[in-house]
Specification:
The chain has a domain of 87 residues. Helices cover 44% and strands 26% of the residues. It is built from four helices and six strands; from the N terminus they run H-H-E-E-H-E-E-E-E-H. The chain has a two-stranded antiparallel ribbon. Helix 1 packs antiparallel against helix 4.
Length: 125
C-alpha cells in the first residue's frame, strides 16, 4: 500500500508539472527551477504511513496563492523584461498554480487507483 501511495503521489506530481509548469502562456518556463524543486516525501509515523508532494523553490507559494511582492531593503523593485529595465514599487502575481484544486478534483482518485493496484499486485503474487 505504501508503494501505491508514493507512486500515486509521484504520478500526481508529474501531472501538475506537465499541465501547469510547462510554458503555459501566463507562466513561461525560463529556468525550470520550480518544476525541478518538486519532491514526494514519505515516512512512517507510528503505525501510519504518510506521503506528501510539494514544490520547494522559495517562490513556489507566490505562484500557488498569488500575492504582491514588495522590496525588502530598497525603495523599488528593478528587473529586466526583454531589453527594458523596469522599476516599480510592487508587483502583483496572480494565482498561477492550482495544486490544491487539482488534488481535490483528480489527485485523490489517482492516488487511490495506485494504492488499489499495489494491493492487487500483492494479492495476485
Amino acid at each position: 500500500m505504501a508503494a501505491g501511495l508514493v507512486d500515486g503521489m509521484r504520478f500526481f506530481q508529474g501531472m501538475i508539472e506537465r499541465t501547469q509548469m510547462s510554458g503555459r502562456p501566463h507562466l513561461k518556463t525560463q529556468t525550470a527551477n520550480l518544476k525541478r524543486s518538486g519532491r514526494v516525501t514519505s515516512r512512517n509515523i507510528g503505525r501510519d504511513f504518510v506521503a506528501k508532494v510539494g514544490w520547494y523553490a522559495k517562490y513556489a507559494m507566490i505562484h500557488q496563492n498569488g500575492g504582491t511582492i514588495r522590496p525588502k531593503t530598497k525603495s523599488h523593485l528593478v528587473f529586466k523584461i526583454g531589453n527594458n529595465w523596469i522599476k516599480t514599487k510592487s508587483v502583483t502575481i496572480p494565482k498561477r498554480l492550482h495544486v490544491f484544486e487539482q488534488f481535490e478534483n483528480r489527485g485523490h482518485r489517482i492516488i487511490f487507483r495506485n494504492i488499489e493496484e499495489s494491493i492487487r499486485k500483492v494479492i495476485v503474487t
